[in-house]
Design brief:
Helices cover 40% and strands 26% of the residues. It folds into 3 domains: 83 residues, Winged helix-like DNA-binding domain superfamily/Winged helix DNA-binding domain (Arc Repressor Mutant, subunit A), CATH 1.10.10; 94 residues, Periplasmic binding protein-like II (D-Maltodextrin-Binding Protein, domain 2, 3-Layer(aba) Sandwich); 99 residues, 3-Layer(aba) Sandwich (D-Maltodextrin-Binding Protein, domain 2), CATH 3.40.190. The protein has 297 residues and is an alpha/beta fold.
Amino acid sequence: MSGLNELTIFTSVVDRGSFAAAAKALGVTRSAVCRRVDGLEKRLGVRLLDRTTRRLSLTEAGETFYRRGTNILAEVAETELLVSEFGEAPRGTLRITSPIMIGLHKLIPLLPDFVAHHPHIKIQLDLSDDLIDPALAEHDVGLRWGEQKPSALRITKVAESRQILCAAPSYLARFGAPAHPDDLLGHNCLMMSRLGLTTNEWVFRIDGHPATLKVSGNYVVNGGHGNYEAVISGLGIGRMTDLRVLEDIGAGRLVRLLQAFEPPDAMPIYAAYKSGTLVPPKIRFFIDHLRGQLRAA
């Protein structure tokens, strides 16, 4: 521990440019700082600082010791912060990344109750339909659609969703409702694109077997919100997650189509977080709350 104290004193001297300034910052005497640095150099058997009456400068050994020492002190500070989060009350910033639809319609409605129970947690939420920070280098938790590839992350299922085919009553009044998936070939189907690739293959269940139908239309958009607005405005027939449209269907703003032909399999929604022996309470409490609330819903 004395070595760590010497390192703190040495880096303070370098950062502040003098023994006097370091002593003032550390709340000790100048002579005490000088003794600790002298003792450090004697113990290491090398000179770390060149001293003149006007300035201090690092020797080559001092530069190496300072550079690595500041990294060590930063690691210690980060470790102390992490361990402090394992107290009785979870605390700290919880950084979450999520697809837009999941975030808007599943996650955000649950946050008021979560932060009410855990007032020392601050939420930082990044919403994007593109997969950001796949290794969670900058986030604590990532919510994701569909089956996940093996990785070093922990993955837990928290909910599921289905793709629903629907259209606005105004569109159906003009063009009629399809009675069979094949009827979609005569309709304006609204499509999504990701990374420049248009998704025009829609899967149905016909005679108990999955069947893929290639649809076409005059509208392609790269985001779920743009797709939703086009469908509800009556531009055409669209396929959207039930997270977004069940309320509209119940209110009559949209009509569910071809429900008898919907694929039986739902799309899982997973929460991913960093693997490790210890999971910080802020993450553990959040995952438990998310899973419990979504399954109850």
